[in-house]
Amino acid sequence: MNLKDCHNVEDFRKLAKKKLPSPIFHYIDGGSDDEITLKRNTDSFNKCDLIPNVLTGASDIDLTTTVLGQKIGFPLFLSATAMHRLYHHEGETATARAADKMGTMFGISTMSTTSIEEIGKLTKGPKLFQLYIHKDKGLTDNLIERCKKSGFNSMCLTVDAVVAGNRERDHRTGFSTPPRLTLGSLLSFALHPTWSLNYLFRKKFELSNVIHTTDKGSKIDQSVMNYMNEQFEAKMSWSDAEYCVKKWGGPFALKGVMSVQDAKKAIDIGCTAIIISNHGGRQLDGSRTPFDQLTEIVDAVGDKIEVILDSGVRRGTHVLKALALGAKACSFGKGYLFALGAAGQQGVELLLQKMKAEINRDMILMGCKSIKDLNRSKVIFRKD
After folding, report:
1. Within 13 Å, how many C-alpha atoms sit on residue 166's CB side?
2. Are 155 and 131 in contact (CB under 8 A)?
3. Mean per-residue pLDDT, 141-164
4. In this predicted structure, what is the pLDDT of residue 213?
5. In this structure, how many other beta carbons lie within 10 angstroms of the beta carbon of residue 7?
6. Lowest mean pLDDT among 42-51, 92-101, 159-168, 316-325
7. Cβ neighbour number for residue 164 with a 10 Å cutoff
8. Which residues lie across from 65 on neighbouring strands?
9. Predicted structure pTM score
10. Concatenated DSSP letters for 99-166?
């Protein structure tokens, strides 16, 4: 299988599985516990059907939208995900270039392997920083100030990962960061020499945004899951979130909101957006899916705050269904990480091209000239 054989997210997933050592691939692919929520995230989109209109003359489609104060070319952007250099030696620089070229927003994580400053210099396009609150308040403040100086346009605070989820696949495959040669993983690394040589002889693996503030960023002698458990503030509160909103002073989202109650609180503390997400099924297994919660949350707060849907998005029709129910845009993580692992920047660009083409084609078939035409009349939930 080669890049030319990739036509959808599942194809990129298969190519990434071929290109990446087993522990690395399964770190992208897996979820927590029994992975029930992981599977349901995508399946939930199949609970409703699209209702097209014909003879509307829809052909020249306007896919643009504004989210978190930034105009993007189509209503799907790249969630902030950690440690891109695990999947390709160019890391976040490859992802950022691809997003910039395709005119959509790119999210960079606190746990990235490319620094805030490097990304700020690399792209002037729409970008989002994903903040985690550390026990060391000075480190949290440092991250916010550096984003301001580096030209970041918006920020989100991830609130559903105060401790790491129980990702049992990682235990079985021997995944660790930095990757180590163990009896369980040695053969897989040996069978993927291109990845292994790039990892060993190119830029040293590091958590670039925290390396100068805490030695945990450079001297990782255990998994990043343990870093999260040791360094992140497990007692994070609404007052902590409000502090970050005010400290940033610009477009700000809470990522990981799953209830109407929390959505309303996000408004109260000054957030401009919420990202409905269960962390891609990697945290609390057995939780509701974002798509299942979308209608209720939009009905409660959709006129007061931007609602973004994350987790489980794999198709253009998934995006259309979410927008019809009131989401402003969608984001995804696993999908583009598969593409990054499969072929670096070229892979991410190709996937975004195909997702944009799907959304455009599906809009024509729906008879919608603009994403503003998507509304509740365009979907119906089945009773079976």
Report:
1. 7
2. yes
3. 93
4. 60
5. 12
6. 159-168
7. 18
8. 72
9. 0.93
10. HHHHT--EEEETT-SS-HHHHHHH--S-EEEEE--BSSHHHHHHHHHHHHHTT--EEEEE-S-SS---
Q: Which residues of 68-105 are buried (b: 16+ CB within 10 A; e: fewer)?
A: bebebbbbbbbbbbbbbbbbbbbbbbbbbbbbbebbbb
Q: Which of 366, 360, 379 is nearest to 76 (CA)?
A: 360
**C-beta separation of 74 from 376 below 8 A:** no
What is the domain-level CATH number for residue 313?
3.20.20.70
What is the rounded average pLDDT of the residues 56-68? 92
- Expressed in percent and rounded to 5, the helix, strand and coil fractions of the chain are 50, 15, 40
- Domain ranges, residue 43: 3-381
Catalytic residue among 26, 134, 279, 318: 279
212: pLDDT confidence band, cut at 50, 70 and 90? low
CA distance 307 to 264: 12
> Which of 355, 327, 289, 308 has the alpha carbon at shortest distance from 43?
289
Strands of the chain (E only): list them. 48-50, 65-67, 70-72, 76-81, 106-109, 127-131, 154-158, 252-257, 273-276, 306-310, 329-332, 379-381
Specify the number of domains making up the chain: 1
Tokens, residue 98: 């691809």
Q: Which residues pair with 275 in a beta bridge?
A: 255, 308
3-state secondary structure of 88: coil
pLDDT of residue 27: 92
Residue 348 corresponds to which amino acid?
Answer: V
Q: What are the pLDDT digits (tens) for 76-109? A: 999 999 999 999 999 999 999 999 999 999 999 9
166 φψ region: left (φ > 0), alpha (ψ -120 to 50), beta (else): beta
Annotated catalytic, 26? Answer: no
